[in-house]
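Sample intake — 4'-phosphopantetheinyl transferase domain-containing protein
Collected from: Shinella yambaruensis
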Amino acid sequence: MFEWSKTADGEWLCAGVAIAMPVSAVLGSFDPDAVLDSAERSQAGRFLKPEDTERYRAAHGLVRRLLSAATGRNPASLSFSRRPGGKPFLVDTGSLDFNLSHGGGWVAVALSRSGRIGVDVEADRPQHFWDEIAASFLAPSEIAASAIGHQQIWTAKEAALKAHGAGFAIPPESVTVTAEGAGFAARLPADHFSGVWRRLGDGHVLAVAADGSVPEIAVCENAGDLGAVLAELSRLDPAMRASR
């Protein structure tokens, strides 16, 4: 499913992966409340709209299940903190970086042991929406000429800024996105990320960016797909690498 490489120390690593799944499929695969902590369950209950509650439960439940598979730890026991720029990280896990996003009817989680990674998923919007806000996020060169659509540029920038860790403390108009092969390059004022897009089945766009190799994407449509991804990610567990 994922492309693996072997380090000089004999460890098996996957450069970076993003897993996308419909909210309804996540909620139909397992009960997020069984793995969320009390603060997350409380936060889920504060949303006024049921769909916002469902997106939050699905996203935070999915990230716990995936991180559990990658670390070999109980999903309900995982502890999180935040870096100075606000990016969450998993306590006591060394080099494992992760990021999550939810938009419209989809959630996405990105994982990497080889560097920083970020992900963004957005529901399609009418072109006039992007035209109205284009000046607030396009770089001068992108305004002058770009073969990439506004939604793709936006998702690439958000994924790169989330990978960086500073988020929108860095103005999006200072980030330049260009097509590179089948994916994109996102150049920040003092940083650079490579990424790839994926159009999801029902009007959503996913972008994932990393500072290492171009990440891979897995789309899970049901519990069976998720189970296969969890089994593959379990190979990231140091206790299992030795037997590979």
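Post-analysis note: Confidence is low (pLDDT under 50) at residues 238-244.
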